[in-house]
Each structure stands twice: as structure tokens, then as C-alpha cells.
Write a structure and sequence with these properties.
By secondary structure, the protein is mainly alpha-helical. About 80% of the residues lie in helices and about 0% in strands. It has helices at about 20-35, 40-55, 60-75, 75-95, 105-140, 145-180, 185-220, 230-285. Helix 2 (about 40-55) packs across helix 8 (about 230-285), helix 3 packs antiparallel against helix 5 (about 105-140) and helix 4 (about 75-95) runs antiparallel to helix 5. It is elongated.
């Protein structure tokens, strides 16, 4: 037999904290985590500081902009396009003349033409990348050009991670819905499973996107030809800023999900407590002695 206290509450039943106490629990938990993980907390705070202070980067001066535009104008995009088209035609001809396991005289000639075309294309691209690197060195890493390129790279990876999470969550929801048809499962259980899968998919997608961004970040930094100190400083600041943004995004998602679940459970708890109190009142009314 379940024993209840004087307020009609089962002592073995989990009681959710009140909204006023929930904020204090979150603050205490965050404080304890920050004390145990000082490196992660420091990186997060540094990233937030970089996002707030750096913004879109420093504006180019008139002299810098003139030099930057002059060097960029020397890159002949038409020559690269023609070389790329020549390589594509040579590659198509080589593939058309190549057998499964053999390559005759015509195939060998087409192969040499394809290799020559690829060599010319690589040389043209290397020259263009070198000139672009010279133009970037005029602007600088912390300029609007450098910061803008890093931001574009981050948003590309970030959006790809979100797209992966959305597609995976859609398929998971569909297959879980099909499997739940053969089970004795109510809608709330199905919704909780879908919610957990959405959070897991977004965590995986954005964490992988963050890792890929950090891996490709160093190549962007090198293209600006900075000195080693500036290169390392910019790399650390950009990586921490990306980590802070992804962490804040995921914390917001988990917080919103936890808040929604807490609200539903709190409403259910309130309704259950009201039903218990009403049942006790009815029992007292029924057990009251009647006088004739």
C-alpha cells in the first residue's frame, strides 16, 4: 500500500521543481561545470568575446583597397576558363577512347593530350592563387576581406550540418512512425523519441561541421601570408568563435526542448495533483457519518 503524507503526495513520486527554483538549479549546474572544465569555459568565453569585438573585420584603407583591387584585376579568369574547357574536352576524348582494360594508340595520344591540358590548367590555377594570395596579404587576416572569407566558410559548413540534421530527422521520424504502428505506443512516447533523435542529429551534424571548418581554416589563414604569431592568434580566435556559436546554438536547442518537456510534465503533474485532491475530498465526503 502506498503511503501518502498529509498533503496527499506520494513520497516515492518524483516532484518537479517550481519554475522559480529551476533557474537556480541551472545556474548552479552551469557554475559547477565551469569550475570543473576551465579550458572549455575559457574557450567559450573567448569565442563570445571575439564574436562581439571583431564583428565583420576592420575596413580597408583607400590605399589597401586600391592595391587589393589592382592585384585582383591581374587575374585572368577567361584564361582559366579556356584551360578548364580544354581539359574537359581532352578528358572526355580520353575516356571515350579508353577500353575496360586496354588503351590503344589513339587512347594513348588522347591521354597525353589530357595530361598536358591538366598540367596547363594546374599552372594557370596556381598562378591565379598566388596572385590572389598576394592581394589577400595586402588586406590582412583581420580585415573585412579575411574575416568575411572565414565567415563564409563557417556558414557553408554550418548550413550543410543543419541540412544533414533536417534530412536525417525527417527519415527517422518517418521510420519511427511506421514502427510505432505495430507497438502499443502513445503519441507522447513517439514525440519524445522524435525529439531525442532531432537533438542527436543536430548535435552530430553541427559538431562534424565544426570539425571540418577548423580543419579547413588553416588553409585560409595560410593564403593571407601572415607572420606566425598573427596566424596562430587568428586561428585560435576563429576556432573559439566557431565553437562558441555552435555550442550556444545547441544549448539553445536543448534548453528549448527541455523547457517544452518541463512545461508538459508540469501541467500533467498539476492536473494529477488536482485529481488526487478531488478524489480525497470525495472520499472524505463519502466517509462522513450521516445522521437521520
Amino acid at each position: 500500500m502506498n503511503r501518502r503524507n498529509g498533503f496527499g503526495v506520494n513520497p516515492n513520486q518524483i516532484v518537479l521543481p517550481e519554475p522559480a527554483d529551476l533557474g537556480q538549479l541551472v545556474v548552479r549546474g552551469a557554475t559547477a561545470f565551469a569550475r570543473r572544465n576551465k579550458a572549455i569555459t575559457g574557450s567559450y568565453l573567448l569565442g563570445i568575446l571575439v564574436i562581439l569585438l571583431v564583428g565583420s573585420g576592420t575596413k580597408l584603407t583607400l590605399d589597401q583597397r586600391r592595391q587589393y583591387n589592382h592585384i585582383m584585376s591581374t587575374i585572368d579568369l577567361q584564361v582559366e576558363y579556356d584551360a578548364s574547357q580544354e581539359f574537359w574536352n581532352a578528358n572526355q576524348a580520353y575516356r571515350a577512347s579508353k577500353g575496360w582494360f586496354t588503351c590503344d594508340g589513339l587512347c594513348q595520344r588522347n591521354k597525353r593530350r589530357m595530361e598536358d591540358a591538366k598540367y596547363r590548367l594546374d599552372v594557370i590555377r596556381q598562378e591565379g592563387e598566388a596572385r590572389m594570395s598576394d592581394a589577400k596579404s595586402v588586406a590582412g587576416l583581420f580585415s573585412e576581406v579575411g574575416v568575411g572569407e572565414v565567415q563564409d566558410s563557417f556558414w557553408s559548413y554550418f548550413n550543410n550540418g543543419k541540412q544533414f540534421a533536417k534530412r536525417q530527422s525527417m527519415w527517422d521520424a518517418m521510420f519511427m512512425g511506421i514502427r510505432s504502428m505495430g507497438r502499443d505506443e502513445n503519441f507522447m512516447e513517439y514525440a519524445m523519441r522524435v525529439l531525442m533523435n532531432v537533438l542527436i542529429n543536430f548535435s552530430m551534424g553541427l559538431c562534424v561541421a565544426l570539425i571540418m571548418f577548423v580543419i579547413g581554416l588553416w588553409s585560409i589563414v595560410r593564403s593571407y601570408q601572415p607572420n606566425p604569431i598573427v596566424a596562430v592568434l587568428f586561428f585560435v580566435c576563429a576556432a573559439c568563435a566557431a565553437f562558441s556559436f555552435v555550442a550556444t546554438y545547441l544549448l539553445g536547442m536543448f534548453g528549448a526542448a527541455a523547457g517544452g518537456v518541463y512545461g508538459v510534465l508540469k501541467i500533467a503533474e498539476t492536473n494529477a495533483r488536482g485529481a488526487r485532491l478531488e478524489q480525497q475530498r470525495q472520499n472524505r465526503m463519502n466517509n462522513r457519518p450521516h445522521y437521520q
